[in-house]
Amino acid sequence: MSLNLTILGCHSATPRVNAFPTSQYLEINNRHFLIDCGEGTQRQMRKYKVGFSKINHIFISHLHGDHFYGLVGLLSTYGILNREKDIHVFGPVGIKKATLLMLKISQSHAKFNIIFHELSSSESELIFEDDKVIVRTIPLHHRVYTNGYLFTEKEKPRKLNMLNISGYQEIGKADFLNIKAGKDVILSNGEVVRNAELTIDPKKPLSYAFCSDTSYKPDIVPIIKNADLLYHEATFLADRTDLAKKTKHSTSFEAAQIAKDANVGELIVGHYSGRYKDISLFQKEAAKIFKNVSLSEPGKVFSID
Amino acid sequence: MSLNLTILGCHSATPRVNAFPTSQYLEINNRHFLIDCGEGTQRQMRKYKVGFSKINHIFISHLHGDHFYGLVGLLSTYGILNREKDIHVFGPVGIKKATLLMLKISQSHAKFNIIFHELSSSESELIFEDDKVIVRTIPLHHRVYTNGYLFTEKEKPRKLNMLNISGYQEIGKADFLNIKAGKDVILSNGEVVRNAELTIDPKKPLSYAFCSDTSYKPDIVPIIKNADLLYHEATFLADRTDLAKKTKHSTSFEAAQIAKDANVGELIVGHYSGRYKDISLFQKEAAKIFKNVSLSEPGKVFSID
Fold this sequence. Notes:
2 copies of one chain form a homodimer. By secondary structure, chain A is α/β, with parallel strands linked by helices. Chain A folds into 2 domains: 3-156 and 207-304, Ribonuclease Z/Hydroxyacylglutathione hydrolase-like (Metallo-beta-lactamase, Chain A); 159-200, no CATH class. The first copy, chain A, has 11 helices and 18 strands. Chain A has a 7-stranded mixed beta sheet. A 7-stranded mixed beta sheet of chain A has the order 7-8-9-14-15-16-17, with helices on one face. In chain A, β5 (87-92), α4 and β6 form a beta-alpha-beta unit. The longest helix of chain A has 11 residues, at 95-105. The A-B interface holds A 13-17, 39-40, 42-43, 45-47, 63-65, 68-70, 72-73, 76-77, 80-81, 94-95, 97-98, 101-102, 105-108, 143-144 and B 13-17, 39-40, 42-43, 45-47, 63-65, 68-70, 72-73, 76-77, 80-81, 94-95, 97-98, 101-102, 105-108, 143-144.
C-alpha cells in the first residue's frame, strides 16, 4: 500500500515561461491516475518520466482551459503510440462532444476506445471502484461546474498474528483466508478462538483529496475528513480575499482552514496566481493555522507509505 | 522593409521533453503573423518574447494536432489578457466549429471577435492583402487537406534619385509623390524628364514561403519561385523515402530539390521525425544539392534586410 503524487503543473491560467497549468499523476495502491490535463501536460509527463501506457483513467475537474486543453493532445498521442487499451475519461458534461469533435477534425484514428463518464451531480458520488481503489467526487464551487476527487484505497484484509497463531497446533494454512476475512476459529474441542487474538489490524487505507478550483467551501469538510493528503487550490493570499471571492477561488489561509477542519495529514497548496513572485508566501500564510503544509512545484513528488 | 522569422517549434508530433510542435512567428514589412500553433505555442511565444498583442492574423496549415492544438489555448489567453482587437484565423474548413465549441464549453468569454477564414480550394488563392503584405495559399499534399502560405511584401514606390533631381531647379517637393509613382516630369520649357532619370529601383519585395506538411510536390515550384526564404518540411532522411511516401511527408533531399528548382534564396528544413537523434544529418543531406540550407531550431531567428 502506498501513495505517490507527482505534480506536473500547478500554476493558474496565464501563460508564463516557467508556469505550467494544473495536472497531477497519482499512483495509489498500484492504480495510476491522471488528474486534470492543462495544455502541455503530455510534455510534462515525458519530463517527469510518467509512463503513458500505465494510465487508464483521467479525471478532469472542470472545463476551463488550464485544466483540460491538454487532453485532446494526449489522446491524439495515444493514437500515434498505437495504444489499444480502453481509456476512461471522467469530467463535466460537454467534455465528450468537444473532445470527439477535435479528434475527428484531426482525423486521429485510434485503435482504442475512449469511455467518457460525464458528471453533472451536485452531490458527492461514487464514480469508480475496483478491488484496489475507490473514487468519489467532491462537489466544488467555481465559476463553472467543478468537482474535486477523493481517491481512497480499499480496506485491506486483516493481517495474521503469526506469533499467536503458532500457539495453536491445530490452526494451519487452510484456515488463513478465513482468519484474514475476520472469522473466529472453532477448535476440535469446541473452544472458540476469537479473531482478535489471531490477527492484527491492517494498515489504514490511504486517501488523497484533490480540490481545484473552488471558492472556500466548508461543506466539503465531511467528505474529505481525515484524508492523508489534501491538495487544495490557493490562487491568492489573504490580502486579496476580495478577488478570491469574486473569481471563485481560495486564499492560502482558506485552504489551510479546510485542511484544519478536515483534520488531514498534510496539505499541498497550488494554482498560484501570476501576480505573486514569491511563492513561499503561500506556505507561510497557510502554516499559521495548519502546520503540515507544502508547496506544489512541477516535478515534486509527495509519497506516503 | 525587413523579414524576421522566429522558429517557435519545429518537431513532428510525438511528444518529447525537448521537442516542440510546429509554430513560427513572422514579422514582414511591419506585419506580425503566427503560422501554425501546435500545443504549447503560447508558452514558446513567452519564452522567445513574442508580443501577444502584435499578432492579428494566424495561419493554420492543416488540422493535425501538432499544427493546431495550441490555438484554442492561445485564443483563451487573449480573453484573459482582455484583448479587444479582432483576430483573424485562416485554416481548413472545420477549424471554426471545433474552436468555437472548445471556447464555449470553457466559458471563455472574450471581448474580441474571432474572424475565421475557412479554406477549401485546391488552387493557390489570394487570402490576405493590405497596403504592406499579400498572402497566398500554397496547396500541399498531405494525409489531410493542407495549405502552405506565401507571404510577400507589396511592391514599394520607386525611390527618388536626389542627385539627378538636384540638377533640375524646377523640380521640387510638390513633384515627389508623382515621381515616386513612376511619372515623368514636364518642365516649363516643354522638355520631358524621364522617370528613369529621377528615380532608382526600390528594393525587391521580400517573400517567405512556408510549406508544411507535404509529400514531395514539384507543382508548388512556380508558386514559390524566387522566394527569399523557404521553410520546407523534412520529416525523414532519404534512407526512409518509403516511409515519407507512405505518410505523405518529405525527405530532406526532396525539400532541397524543391528549393533548387524554385531558385529560392535560403532553405530552412524542419518537422524532424523523433527517430533521428542527429539533426545535423538533415542539413548535410539537403546541402548536397542546395547549398544555402539551415536547420530550424526553437528560438532561432532568420532575418533578411
